[in-house]
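The protein record minuted underneath.
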Amino acid sequence: MKPISMTARRARILLPLAGAAALCAAPFSARAQAAWPNRPVKVIVPFSAGSGTDILARMVSEQMTRSLGQAFVVDNKQGADGILGTDLIAKSPPDGYTLGFIPSSPIVMNPALYAKLPFDPIKDLIPVANMAMLSCVLGVQPEMPVKNVAELIAYAKANPGKLNYAAGSTFTHLAGEMFKYISGTSMQAIPYKGTAPQVTAMLGKEVDVIFDPFLGVQHIKAGKIRPLAVTSSRRSSVFPELPTLQEAGLSGYTVETWIAMFAPPGTPKAIVDTLHREMNRITNLPEVRTRLGELSYDPVVETQEQFSRRIVADTARWAKTVKDANFQVNK
């Protein structure tokens, strides 16, 4: 056997050491990713406590706390149609310890309604996973002399400027503005800081009309709000007797929203992938799907690519809708 040279001997010794050194010299961020999460994770909701987004965020946070071994804590940062909280998410450190649970309005509707935003919804947020779709119930005060959509339109036209409606979010505000545009009626939008407060306002007789994202189901069933129709493209399983607004004569009327998790730009892909898998796992849990149904949500499980395409398509659709309807753009 040919003797091994000193150079070869050194190579045999140094190569394993070099490999170990390379592992030790791996970037700190990579080692941190492997240990994620090793401390509590903040989940920012850009709307009020008790809103539909808040309810889903707490449901997901509870499940992730169990499965990932660290507390996922919801932090409500409402204001400016969801802009304040969404901007905070976009500008948070991309370390996986600040996430966002956001409905579609700040992402795909606000760009059409605001001349300038402090963030770019497409570039400054990473879509992690969509979870659910939701529409609204069009309701009126039970004392009003209207029992269907046609009668509401006739009453509004006979009393121009008399009616008002609750605008607790961009979603419900835009639902009302689209109703006015397609029906040719006039109603005054009354702003509220969230969809839960707008239901309270309706119960307190502060407003005449509401586009309710199913938060007031129990009040509707108790007769405290008279439902007329739903804003979705198909009838609701909660109120199958109610027509869609398209069925009620408003051609082209569809207002639906989704609710999803986002991360700040630059969040490591390994963390985003883990969150995406967890979101889909949670959405598929029988108890979660049951709860979503009770809240009038349709569960959604999509790939990240499918969700990204949805965002781009919805952004274009709302931009065209706002332009065609000549909605007032906020400065």
In short: The longest strand covers residues 126-134.
